[in-house]
Amino acid sequence: MDNTSSTDDGAIAAWKDAGNRCFQVADYEEACRLYSNGLAAYNEMTRSVAAYQNSELKANLLSNRAACRLKLMDFKGGAQDCTDALAVSPSSTKALYRRALCHEGLQEYQRSVQDCTMLMQVDPSNVQGQQLLRRLKEVVSREQSDMTEVKRALDLVVRSRTGKTVLKDVEISSVMSSMIGLCFDDKSHALDLYRRDGLDVMVEVINDELAKGHAERSVHYSSVLLNSIRVLSSSSTHKEFVLRTISFEDPQCLYNKKRNCFEHCHLCLSPEKQQQQQPSAKSKLSFVSICSILFCLSDDMIAPLLVLVMNILKHTPMVVVVVVEAGDPPVYSINEHCGRALLCGLDHLLGRRSPDTYAVVADTISAFISDSGDYFQAEMEVDSRLESMEERRRRIKHMELLKNRSKQHTSWAVECGILDRLVVNMDSCDRVVRHNSSSCLGKLINYHGDNVERLKSRLLPHLKGHVSLEFDAISEEKQVVELDDLSQESTISIEQVRIRAALEATLLISNPDLGLWALELPGGISQLHALISTGDYRCQELAAEVICLASSMEAGGKLIKSIISNGALTVLLHAPHPGIRAAAASTLTKLSIKAKAITEDSAEVAQILNTALGVLKEANRERSNAQVTATDPKKIPGPESSQQQLVSFSALDEVSQRRTQARKQHESELVEQQKKKPPLQLQHSMSNAVSMTSVERSIETLAAMVGKTYIKEEIVHGSYR
Questions:
Q1: Does residue 533 lie within any of the structural domains?
Q2: Are residues 296 and 217 in contact, defined by beta-carbon separation less than 8 angstroms?
Q3: Do residue 123 and residue 227 come from a single domain?
Q4: How far apart, in whole angstroms, are the C-alpha atoms of residue 604 and residue 601?
Q5: Which of 258, 254, 257, 256 is nearest to 267 (CA)?
Q6: pLDDT digits (tens, 9 = 90+) for 214-244
Q7: What are the φ and ψ backbone dihedral angles of 124, each rounded to 5 degrees?
Q8: Which among 270, 412, 278 is positioned nearest to 341, based on CA atoms?
Q9: What is the pLDDT of residue 561?
Q10: How far apart are CA 623 and CA 627, in angstroms?
């Protein structure tokens, strides 16, 4: 009998140990299942062997399962497990402490205090119990006084809305501002807002404010509406508040998935499923309804609402995608209905092209399609030398599941029109919109995975432009499309050509193979010629960017041969803007080094060196001017302030003078063109600021050139050429 009992204890303990391992890697659902299996084995053993009893083992299994349910926010089940554990082991400190936490989660503070008091009697030196008891006494004290700061603020808001107290909008906003600070700084205040039905009050305030502008489907700035949204977003920084208040149901069917639109735009509360079992359960705020009001808020209110959305994504892993084997960490994601509803709202915001909110919108899209576990926190790097084979297998499988989730969310984004919107926005007049569109599109392409053919079909309409050519396969004999390939009857839109060039540049960065495919399509090279020939800054900048990126690859260098041969690159080398010159110099350097064409007698060497140094000089002058202006705003520094800070190459002075004259002439022409407003709307920029990319390319060019001995002598000793 002793041997049999020992064997059975080992089998039950094996379930407990397996559950402990899953708990350590935060797989609480699997750990809970394993502990339940251990309890089932224990109960089966007690029925088959009358004399068998191991109260300590049973208490540990129950207490451990309570810890899992506590992590899963199942406070009622966790409290019952602790009660069962205390029935067989009354002095279990873990069971007492965890039951106190469960009662706190159920907002049964008096019972939680009783558990802590019993814990202190069993183990007076328990530090965690002392801290919990101190915190609970403060909560109970506030409950008894029934006049917390949050309650006072809520009472004022409710009284003003019912007419019992007359308050101006400014006064109501001031009251809500105090609630914003309280809920952001302290989790207890945010949960107090939830307990006092503050969620219902905020939803009512927001819906009433939205109703005022419902006829126009646009709400102008309202301090009350803005602060109401901020109260919710500040409270959402705490995970417990999000888990208790947000629902991923769509009870009023606000979002129409087939039409990819919202039928109505307002916040709505969805009743909790367990409300029949728990009469005291409160309603939750529908995530889909939060996405719906993205359509009817002004730009001033978009940022705090997206903060609320991002916090919900970060704190609420709702739906388990798949758990392959016992012990593997689960991968979480919101359901497809909610995901598409969010993307629908974000697509609408992208269409506004508002520089004030565009970066936040693009960041939200990038986070949603990312392969991070909680959408934001990057996965920690693991030293593979220190992990076991089992841990490595789980980590690799976990990364694969995250990538599959990312591909799924990316496919939703493409189907909801996010990709098309980003491509069009890359030709926006605002630099912030262009930059964030390109960055977000690059991530979208990267996360789209291996489904290249499907991606090509979505990109092809944007790569056609308005050129009347058939997009048949291009033969190997003819990989470069010349200007003659364009029909004389073709109608070319400069806007479409710019969009195509911007898309090609993004593809070359994010997926070089796709970028080369786009360049090889009919009109790919000839449209770059067209952009250069316009003389417009924006057009030439895009053409220079595509050429510079393509020159980094062997196949790309072959495609842009015609640009080199007909002198178009020389036009870019003498462009007024330093960024264009730096890209052209970098291109020429890469192609010359690959072709081993840089010799001592090469005429291109001086041109490349002069261009790179000219960009560095302008950057240095701008930095010096900024320092002088910061010291004395009234003083306008001249070019002589930084003239002697960099040494000139041979023949640089003459080239520099020509560029200065060309830049001044270009700026005067821009002013005249803006006054005349020509029918062909080219995007000009009055800013000649040297970007960091231009400086990096210039330094990269010089670094590549100094490998030649005679170039080193030129830099050190000056001119001999």
A1: no
A2: yes
A3: no
A4: 9
A5: 254
A6: 655 555 567 888 889 999 999 999 888 988 8
A7: -60, -20
A8: 412
A9: 77
A10: 6
Retrieve residue 517's tokens: 């495919």
Predicted confidence (pLDDT) at residue 26 exceeds the cutoff of 70:
yes
Instruction: Please tell me whether residues 81 and 104 are part of one structural domain.
Output: yes
User: For position 53, which CATH number holds?
Assistant: 1.25.40.10
Residue 446 domain flag: no
Number of Cβ within a 10 Å radius of residue 552: 15
3-class secondary-structure state, position 51: coil
79 and 196 assigned to the same domain: no
Residue 691 falls within a domain, yes or no?
yes
pTM score above 0.85: no
Q: Among 11-20, 446-455, 680-689, whose mean pLDDT is lowest? A: 680-689
Are 210 and 125 part of one and the same domain? no
Which residues, 6+ apart, have CB-to-CB distance to 232 below 8 Å?
Answer: 199, 202, 285, 308
Model confidence band, residue 650 (pLDDT cutoffs 50, 70, 90): very low
Among residues 145, 168, 197, the one where a domain terminates is 145
Please, are residues 72 and 58 in contact by the beta-carbon 8 Å criterion?
no
Residue by residue, DSSP assigns 406-444 as HHHHHHHHHHTTHHHHHHHHTT-SSHHHHHHHHHHHHHH
Query: Is the separation of the CB atoms in 683 and 429 below 8 Å?
Result: yes
Token representation of residue 167 = 């308050």
Place of tokens 């449209």: 527
What single DSSP character describes residue 214?
Answer: G
Helix (H) or strand (E) holding 262: strand 261-262
Helix residue spans in 146-285 (DSSP H) = 149-162, 169-185, 187-195, 198-212, 223-235, 239-245
Range of the domain at 111: 2-145
- Residue 179 maps to which CATH number? 1.25.10
Measured between alpha carbons, how far is 275 from 218 in angstroms, rounded to an integer?
A: 35
DSSP calls for 91-142: T-HHHHHHHHHHHHHTT-HHHHHHHHHHHHHH-TT-HHHHHHHHHHHHHHHH
- 190 in the same domain as 136: no
For residue 118, which amino acid is it? M
pLDDT digit string, tens, across residues 277-298: 444 457 889 999 999 999 888 8
Report which of 318, 284, 178, 292 is spatially closest to residue 234, judged by C-alpha positions: 178
Please count the residues of the chain.
721
Regarding whether 251 and 231 lie in a shared domain, the answer is: yes
555 vs 52 pLDDT, higher one? 555
pLDDT at position 715 is: 56
Residue 516 lies in a domain: no
CA 614, 619, 624, 628 torsion-angle sign: positive
Which residue, 198, 238, 359, 217, is CA-closest to 294?
A: 217
Q: What is the model's pLDDT at position 632?
A: 54
Q: Which residues of 662-680 are buried (b: 16+ CB within 10 A; e: fewer)?
A: ebeebeeebeeeeeeeeee
The tally of domains found in the chain comes to 3
